[in-house]
Amino acid sequence: MGTVLLKPRARARADRDRILAVILATSVNHGGKTNGYTVPSPDAQADLVRAALNKARVHPRTISYIEAHGTGTALGDPIEIRGLTKAFTGPAPGDDKIQPGGTLLGSETQYCSIGSAKSNLGHLEAAAGIAGLSKIILQMQHRQLAPSLHSQQLNPDIPFVKTPFKVQQTLEEWQPPQLERDGRVIDCPRRAGISSFGAGGANAHLILEEYLPVEGSGINREQPALILLSAKTEPQLQAQVENLLAAIEANGFTDKDLPDIAYTLQIGREAMAERLALIADSIASMVDKLTAFLTAESSVDGFCRGRADKNKNEKQGPGFFGVENESRPRILLRTAALWVKGAVFDWQGLYAGREPRRIRLPGYPFARETHWIT
């Protein structure tokens, strides 16, 4: 159903990874004895969520979305809301550890959206947790809250208007909670909780927070940049160019993103046989050169096209880029000419320890051929 790569935040930052979200805390417990094997315990669920909030050291009022376990049953859903409401509103030991350090603005009821991926996907057994996690990450990425399907008629046994929760029924912008501190209004990060409960009483809850990148002053923003694209076949290389042009327009990339685009394509993609390399000092010049390649325009300088020769894949060390008295554009042009013929480079040497960051760019455009068994 899905896979995530977990890393300590400090290491992910050091590795210049694209961080999708931050797990602030996790908590697991067991419901103990109840009236039946499939009957959950609201007290155990409340303790579970409260423990996660304490570990994360965040106030429940700063949680603006809950991805519920969402059994969709007359018994399970009211119990889950009871447990969440108790965790969010009831006094508990350790409350002093999770005070927001200011006054949170807004209503004290129905301030937190709630939904469940099960309305889209059904019950998923062991894959339910990763499905909910993927949904939260996508919502954080787009800064939007997705509607839960088939929720127009709410459960009459759940008094939502008296709880911190409202069922997310429409697509809307995910507005971060606001905190007033020392007379100033501060936007809190977007935070979410996710619950996943197993048959027999196993309970798990995670607290997630959107990742807000810290732009370091040592990041290399030197231009021009070397843009690399490759594919197994020429039609797929053309598709790579078309997809990159579409991504530039869709994401509204500006010149400050140019080094990140170049860096991602250099170290985050496999170098295949059909290759295109171009030198760009702005997003506009990159778009012009990519468009010229598609239209076979011969009057545009600054890009190299070739097919890698397996016999010419000499490895060039980081010192290759430090040629004395040679300008950066000339170094990049020489590098491009060698790379399209199959040369291998240690791209870290191009940045002298001040690497940009990896960003989200289109993946490989597979040929989508079908091969039916006759």
Q: Rounded to an integer, what's the Rg over CA atoms?
A: 26 Å
Number of strands: 16
Tell me, rounded to a whole number, the average pLDDT: 87
Shape: elongated
Report on the biggest sheet: 6 strands, mixed
Structural notes for this entry:
The protein has helices at residues 9-14, 42-56, 76-89, 118-121, 128-142, 234-251, 258-267, 283-294, 328-339; strands spanning 22-30, 65-67, 103-104, 112-115, 144-145, 165-167, 172-173, 178-181, 184-187, 191-197, 202-209, 225-231, 274-280, 303-307, 315-316, 344-345. With 374 residues, it is an alpha/beta fold. It has a 6-stranded mixed β-sheet with strand order 1-11-10-2-4-6, with helices on both faces. A hairpin with a 2-residue loop joins strand 8 and strand 9 (184-187). The longest helix has 18 residues, at 234-251. The chain is elongated and about 75 Å long. The relative contact order is 0.13.
Task: Give a short synopsis of this structure.
With 374 residues, this protein is an alpha/beta fold. It has nine helices and 16 strands.
Layout: helices, strands, pairs:
Blueprint: H1 9-14, E1 22-30, H2 42-56, E2 65-67, H3 76-89, E3 103-104, E4 112-115, H4 118-121, H5 128-142, E5 144-145, E6 165-167, E7 172-173, E8 178-181, E9 184-187, E10 191-197, E11 202-209, E12 225-231, H6 234-251, H7 258-267, E13 274-280, H8 283-294, E14 303-307, E15 315-316, H9 328-339, E16 344-345
Parallel strand pairs: 2-4, 2-10, 4-6, 15-16
Antiparallel strand pairs: 1-11, 3-8, 5-7, 8-9, 10-11, 12-13, 13-14
Helix pairs in contact: 2-3, 6-8
